[in-house]
């Protein structure tokens, strides 16, 4: 693994087993943008070596040089190497969960369940299916029109993939792209979030010694390093993060005419219908809103509940929220900046008439934001319009499912939506009318962990696809390969253009539907005569 970094002095001893510790190759220049104070209590985090933006192009050049041989490595060999990551990942489960707890403030259980175990499934899925998914597929060609020709669609790697990721799931999100991208024969230059550089380095360390030099490398830093990576000689940018950054990256990629895959923010709604299993719906909604302290692109940030069951549902949600143990079930927020956004949204909603039913803002500057439930009437508040990305659950009462679908679709975000009902047939009909890229019935959010299920959105949630063969379609290019075994000296459509060829062209148009029955019969007769002339070279 490569890291073109400028090394920093690190804490003695603590750095010894730290995958993010500065490599011996570089020398200290600056501390970079990396926080060293853990969001939860504890020892300071180890310092991290920053990649200078000027060094990014070199990392990309090395990735490009390595990629060609990597793509030529037999697929089975590539798959065998990457399959080994699963064992390493599982063997380091506790270390990974502990680091995630330290760096992001996640409860250890949540870290292990969301960011370790699903990645084992991910590696199994891709290593088992990649051969079939990359296999060339034949294209049917009419043997009369195209004699002797056989067509195939191959899937070729894009080349060098730039991967830029956020801090909220800093192990799971990068692996979801790194694994299929490498299997498909790409090289990857990965820039983790500056908030979670140690988790990023840990991800890369899982591949240590398995890949040729340059095939997977890490660039550590903030927006300047990310921008340098987008501007470097990469063939695809896979980005997960905020709408604002996604927009900047889309513009930069458009200017360079390179494709980009954007997984952006969310404002997911849960639609709770009168015929739901109320206990399951309440428990599912509470988890969907507060897991990862609400710092989840697919957090439930709005609940639309049908009036008939609204009081009972709200009462149960409030009771369940009251049972959540701070620091055990719900961790601290990861950054002060995000906690400030959440506070602002909450205050504006309350100023607009929303009623806090559980929780409420903590003291200024605290990251321990209590899970908060609000009853909200008005949608014209940032809490309902923008992504909040924190442990706040606004509940809105609606008259019926129609109103809930209309309000859900009115958002500029469209990532996932859950429908809570026992009426599956009706739920399927409602799902077809939702804009979201993922719809779950009687569950929420967890499908991001399913490697065979596409994770995607619309509108401000971006258009990227993670997981499933649809993601592989982004990480590869289709190449059409035609093989012509015809022994004819010339093709019908080759030079010279003659009157017979013109007759053939128009007779074909009539024969293939451009004329009535009699016209078609006449065209066939004309065609036979003109084809014989053409065969004679006229
Ligand atoms: P962010 O946009 O601030 O940063 C994301 C990454 O982009 C970081 O690595 C950052 O350093 C880099 N970056 C910043 N400016 C850049 C630039 N100009 N050029 C290139 N790179 C740049 O987002 P964040 O705060 O880290 O993450 C939270 C956001 O991520 C939320 O909006 C959340 O919804 C979204 N998210 C989406 C999904 C999804 O699957 N749709 C999943 C997780 C998180």
From TrEMBL:
The lineage of its organism: Bacteria, Pseudomonadati, Myxococcota, Polyangia, Polyangiales. InterPro entries: Ald_DH/histidinol_DH (IPR016161), Ald_DH_C (IPR016163), Ald_DH_N (IPR016162), Aldehyde_DH_dom (IPR015590). One of its GO terms (molecular function) is oxidoreductase activity, acting on the aldehyde or oxo group of donors, NAD or NADP as acceptor. Residues 14-24 have a biased composition (Low complexity). Residues 1-49 are annotated as: Disordered. This is Aldehyde dehydrogenase. PANTHER family: ALDEHYDE DEHYDROGENASE-RELATED. It comes from the Bacteria. Residues 32-479 form the Aldehyde dehydrogenase domain. Its EC number is 1.2.1.-. Keywords: Oxidoreductase.
